[in-house]
Amino acid sequence: MKNFVLLLLALITVGCGGQKSKKEETVKPQTVHFKRVMPPVQSTPEAQFQYMVDHYWDRFDFADTLFIERVDSAEMMRAYAEYIATYVGPYNGEPVAKLMKRASVSRKMLDYFATMSEKLFHDPNSPLRSDELYIPVLEAQIAAPFYDEYEKMVPQYDLALASQNRILKKANDFRYTVASGRTSNLYSLKADFVLIYINNPGCPMCRQIQEQLVASQIVADALKDGRLKILAIYPDEDLTLWHEHPLPKAWINGYDRGRRLEKDRLYDLRAIPAMYLVDREKTVLVKDSTTVPEIERMIVEYQQ
Questions:
Q1: In 106-227, where do the E strands start and end?
Q2: Contact between residue 66 and residue 25 where contact means Cβ atoms under 8 Å apart
Q3: Contact, 76 vs 119, CB < 8 A?
């Protein structure tokens, strides 16, 4: 958990309260601290867990905007990250929606929690990046009476993109081209699972993920018996690098001619690499992941 928190803190370039003036830097008010609730001691572990999901923020006064000016931003980010990592998980947007409803008591409070949420759920480098968690934040901003139509344009754009390829929904179909010039599409692939691997050969993390996929016995076995197909997609226009770095022969190595994935906003390409695991019906099981063990776990779980 310590390393996890340090990684999250590295994402904080500016305190969530915004840029401080020279006067504020000189005369600092007394720091206040976020107070966590404690679960009932006599209850079961399951009941304690659910209590924390529902009551984690009960001692936080959402009407007190002075508090967020005085509290340490890193401390609040740690508390928020702890709540998500320990009690919410990457796909459960309901607790975040309830939190945003409570934060919507004022523009200042909603701005504060929306800023933290953006760093945790939307930053490409955040280990808690999740569209399922970010969608309730964007919906709260769009629904809030504090913003005009121009201020809502950015969250509306982000919401439209985040709403694509959601977990347990159908993936967007797209066409791809292989080295021979032949074209095909995602939905024509017949297998229990298709792993869409959006990558760039010049990306160090892409090479790491490729090595992990090749080394995975679960992936190798699923490829061998035909349960899995890996569709590697190069999303850029310059094909020189793509031709110079062939992928394993067992994979389908294609590129996005015309860059339709980006232009038609079919997939979020803010961060590459990205993996999407879909089932035979092209239902999304894993979205925008960079974690091979997550892919392995889903293949094993959904095969049983």
A1: 175-178, 183-185, 193-198
A2: no
A3: no
Measured distance CA(289)–CA(304) in Å, rounded: 22
Strands 228-234 and 193-198: parallel
At 225, which amino acid appears? D
DSSP classification of residue 11: T
How many of the other CB atoms lie within 10 Å of CB of 93?
23
Which pair of tokens denotes residue 95?
């607790």
The predicted pLDDT at position 130 comes to: 93
Look at residue 175 and give its three-state secondary structure: strand
Residue position matching structure tokens 């979205």: 287
Whole-model pTM: value is 0.83
Helices 217-224 & 204-215, crossing angle to 10 degrees?
Answer: 70
Q: CA-to-CA distance for 68 and 66, rounded, in angstroms?
A: 6
Closest listed residue to residue 162, CA positions, set 145, 187, 141, 144: 141
Encoded tokens for 49: 């867990």
Is 20 in contact with 70 (CB distance < 8 Å)?
no
Opening angle at CA 99, ends 106 and 117, nearest 5: 85
pLDDT at 202: 82
What are the tens digits of pLDDT across the range 107-135?
Answer: 999 999 999 999 999 998 898 999 999 99
